[in-house]
Write a structure and sequence with these properties.
The protein is built from 20 helices and 41 strands. With 871 residues, it is α+β, with helices and mostly antiparallel strands. Among the domains are: 1-25; 364-448 and 592-732, Glycoside hydrolase family 3 C-terminal domain (Rossmann fold, 3-Layer(aba) Sandwich), CATH 3.40.50; 455-588, Jelly Rolls (Sandwich), CATH 2.60.120; 750-870, Sandwich (Immunoglobulin-like). The strands form eleven sheets. Strands 13, 14, 15, 16, 20, 22, 23 and 25 form an eight-stranded antiparallel beta sheet that branches. Strands 9-31-30-27-10-11 form a six-stranded mixed beta sheet, sandwiched between helices. The chain starts with a helix and ends with a strand.
Length: 871
């Protein structure tokens, strides 16, 4: 006993002594400069330690007191993928539709505070090393949404370089804060640089745009965030650029980012991108050569934790030196020091952020504000909107009407409460108006699975329900850690959330087994849905195999049944990362009779159809192949045909039909001419339904503006894989769009007058443009004032026009305001065929107003134009 006690005391003394020893090291001294501390820390690392610190999941180094840390965290529109409840704002494309940099900066500020609260909570729980609980956020996505078919365009700020750069800078400044010493959180601009689909080939395709397109379209936003917003990080893309993988590109990484722009922050690869060097691009023979080349080009982190493990051997073989690794390590640890991770919490004001910050009333109110601000009124014939709150009966129809997934978009967190469009309308009208709801159709077909509660038909070994076995590995290996009976299979966890017992939602698996006893001859449909992977078996025969990463999308199996016969049902599930969800439902398919639907709803006073698309159909590298969709992208921008047919059926009632569109990208609406009112609500976040109801019933005057062009048909689009900007976006498209970039209506009218601009100016000088805007309507409202510059045509590759200024202003009914824009020589310049920004002499046309000049659609504002001669 005495010997055991002595050993324990000795161990305690040694542990305490070790802690005292490392705390005395210079890099732990907060009085020294960050640079001195970083240099000291890196000098103390062994080669093996250095290599592991360059993985996204960097392990702890106990001898130095360095904690483990995972660099991979997400905050696209609120902190994402954490096990904690958070505020979820509208999707990025929706926030771009606000054209409000102040609102976006505040959203980023609030999200950073929630991220700090989560990180502080993680430290309390000794979980600060886990993914999605850190402070380095791989946001914003500032790729240019050049083609509406790209599924990840919803994550961007639209198709225009100036709007993207301006909104991106606001986000970065809001997220990173203004403390002179510490970062509130670290933003990361992605995906550098020429990257916007197609998703199915993103690991292997090569892009070689012209120098004009590179510098005119694809690089400006990255340049602004690096040189003017001091973004902490950059993520290099999967694809190749001019036959070199982006993360190993001489042009992008070495020449431009590190040498020309002098970027000293960190660069992470997209996840698995270094492996792509040798797996798909075939530019390198193996992981070692790929890793060495990526580091030499300035890529500091290997997200994926695989290829960079070969760096130690690369040093030994002379492919890279340890000193060259040190360059990356200094950049990485500088970020961690700037986040305050090596200083006492009392010194870092953000380290005091309490858990009560999560979903605070102020944050939730701002989410609702941005949802309102993002809504774009596309059409409003005969003042169909706003609807009266005194109507007798309203019908709400469509696949997105009560779809809580659709309002959240992708890369999202989980809020405590989600308001769908249906719920928002019901909340708005109370019990005084009858609200009837019919889903009617799915997004792409009219055959709905009519779910049926068949729980009494499931049993295992005499007990009702399912035998549920949970494993603390992702492959169902060994004995289960927990076995229990569950009534149903219907689970949804965030990564890291407690599943049960000692199992948390990260790299775990489960098996659900039961016997299904049929009560009649016929057919029963089983619908399986899961994220990440699953296998579905009937009588030990594999029916569905989605074991690889599945993302969204349910799969169905129709079982032919015999009365009183039992069938062994097995559902195997694995979770790898991110959200964890698995669900098994039963029912039978029923095809919707649209004529009968119209007949049922003909006594409604108004019909609200909530349709469009969904993040279950568009997104990142998805296993989706519905008609019009492929791998996360779209193969057609047309509204799915079944929705067009449903709109026609609803119009046959003779009642006003309002189309509420939910989407992350432009949708061509063939039936637009016959629909009196169209509202684009995007993916509006946790309060989307409240915002939609506020607009529909006149409690909010819409002022969102399109950040993308809505084309009329697929025929308007060039080849998706062609990265030339010819005939793409409002800047180069020569056709007539269905709804143009910058477009949006209001319940008010706005008049512009008193435009003042110089007639001539000398090259190299700034100019000032001023004008007056008046709300001539009867309702208070907001207007997005937009300024465009049309080049003189001397450059053959020049855009038709370029957005160069905008302001969102609130005006009471009858109120006027004078506005002024300052334009720099750079804003009056165009990129030539060699990629050089030049100010041309001759005439330019300046246009200011509520949208682009020359719009042929009905508008609620005018535009003014003035010619300026540059000498």
């Amino acid at each position: 006993m005495k010997k055991t006690l002595s050993i324990f005391l000795l161990a305690t003394v040694l542990t305490s002594s070790a802690q005292t020893d490392y705390k005395s090291l210079p890099f732990w001294n907060p009085k020294l400069s960050f640079e001195a501390r970083v240099n000291d820390l890196v000098s103390r690392l062994t080669l093996d330690e250095k290599v592991l610190q360059m993985l996204n999941a960097a392990p702890a180094i106990p001898r130095l007191g360095i904690p483990a840390y995972d660099w991979w965290n997400e905050v696209l529109h609120g902190v994402a993928r954490t096990p904690f409840k958070v505020t979820v704002y509208p999707q990025a494309i929706a926030m771009a539709a606000t054209w409000d940099t102040g609102s976006l900066a505040m959203m980023a500020d609030y999200s950073a505070l929630e991220g700090r609260a989560i990180h502080n909570k993680a430290i309390e729980l000794h979980r600060e090393n886990e993914r999605y609980l850190g402070l380095t956020y791989w946001t914003p996505n500032i790729n240019i949404f050049r083609d509406p078919r790209w599924g990840r365009g919803q994550e961007t700020y639209g198709e225009d370089p100036f709007l993207t750069a301006t909104m991106g800078k606001a986000f970065v400044r809001g997220l990173q804060g203004d403390d002179p010493k510490y970062l509130k959180a670290a933003a990361c601009a992605k995906h550098y640089a020429v990257h916007s689909g197609p998703e199915p080939s993103r690991h292997s395709f090569d892009v070689s745009p012209s120098m004009h397109d590179l510098w005119d379209t694809y690089l400006p936003a990255f340049h602004e965030l690096v040189t003017n917003a001091n973004v902490a990080g950059v993520m290099c893309a999967y694809n190749a650029f001019q036959k070199q993988p982006c993360c190993g590109s001489d042009v992008l990484m070495t020449n431009i980012l590190r040498n020309d722009w002098k970027f000293t922050g960190y660069v992470t690869s997209d996840c698995g991108a270094i492996d792509d060097f040798f797996r798909f691009h075939k530019t390198h023979p193996d992981a070692m050569s790929a890793a060495a080349d990526a580091v030499l080009h300035g890529t500091d982190i290997d997200c994926g934790n695989f290829s960079y493990k070969a760096l130690g051997e690369a040093v030994k073989q002379g492919k890279i030196t340890e000193q060259q690794l040190d360059v990356s390590l200094r950049r990485l640890f500088m970020i961690r020091f700037r986040l305050g991770m090596f200083d006492p919490p009392s010194m870092v004001k953000y380290a005091q952020t309490p858990a009560s910050t999560l979903e605070s009333p102020e944050h939730k109110a701002h989410s609702l504000k941005m949802a309102r601000q993002s809504i774009v009124l596309l059409k409003n014939e005969k003042n169909t909107l706003p609807l009266s709150k005194k109507l007798r009966k309203i019908a709400v129809v469509g696949p997105n009407a009560d779809n809580s997934i659709a309002v959240l978009g992708n890369y999202n967190g989980t809020p405590s409460e989600i308001v769908t469009a249906l719920q928002g309308i019901k909340n708005k009208l109370g019990t005084g108006v009858e609200v009837v709801y019919e889903k009617a159709i799915n997004h792409t077909n009219d055959t709905l699975l009519a779910y049926a509660d068949m729980r009494n038909q499931f049993s295992f070994e005499g007990k009702p329900g399912f035998k549920a076995e949970y494993f603390s590995n992702k492959d169902l290996k060994g004995d289960p850690d927990l076995v229990r009976t569950e009534e149903t299979v219907d689970h949804n966890w965030q990564e890291g959330e407690q599943v049960n017992g000692n199992i948390r939602a990260l790299n775990f698996s489960a098996r659900y087994t039961t016997n299904f006893t049929a009560v009649a001859d016929g057919e029963t449909t089983f619908e399986v849905e899961g994220d990440d992977g699953y296998r579905f078996l009937v009588d030990n025969r594999e029916i569905i195999n989605a074991w690889t990463r599945n993302r969204f999308g349910a799969r169905n199996y129709r079982l032919k049944t015999e009365k009183n016969k039992s069938y062994r049902i097995t559902l195997e599930y694995q979770q790898l990362e991110g959200k964890a969800s698995v669900r098994l439902r039963t029912g039978n398919f029923e095809r919707t009779n649209l004529a009968a639907l119209a007949n049922r709803l003909k006594d409604a006073d108004a019909i609200i159809f909530v349709g469009g698309i969904s993040p279950q159909l568009e997104g990142e590298e998805m296993r989706v192949s519905n008609p019009g969709f492929n791998g996360g992208d779209r193969t057609s921008i047309l509204l799915p045909a079944v929705q067009t047919e449903t709109l026609k059926a609803l119009e046959s009632t003779g009642k006003p039909v309002v189309f509420v569109l939910m989407t992350g990208s432009a949708v061509a609406i063939p039936e637009a001419a016959n629909i009196p009112a169209i509202v684009n609500a995007w993916y509006g976040g946790q309060s989307a339904g409240t915002a939609i109801a506020d607009v529909l019933f006149g409690d909010y005057n819409p002022a969102g503006r399109l950040p993308v062009t809505f084309y009329r048909s697929d025929a308007d689009l060039p080849d998706f894989e062609d990265y030339s900007m010819a005939n793409r976006t409002y800047r180069y498209f020569k056709g007539e769009p269905q709804f143009p970039f910058g477009y949006g209506l209001s319940y008010s009218n706005f008049r512009y007058d008193e435009l003042k601009a110089p007639v001539t100016t000398a090259a190299g000088r700034k100019i000032s443009v001023s004008l007056r805007v008046t709300n001539t309507g009867k309702m208070d409202g907001e207007e997005v004032v937009q300024l465009y510059v049309a080049p003189n045509g001397a450059q053959a590759a020049a855009p038709i026009r370029m957005l160069k200024g905008f302001k969102r202003v609130a005006l009471k009914a009858g109120e006027s305001r004078m506005l002024q824009f300052e334009l720099t020589p750079e804003q009056l310049s165009v990129v030539d065929e060699n990629g050089v920004l030049r100010q041309q002499k001759g005439k330019l046309m300046i246009s200011v107003g509520g949208g682009q000049p020359g719009v042929k659609l009905k508008t609620t504002s005018n535009t003014l134009s003035s010619a300026i001669t540059v000498s």
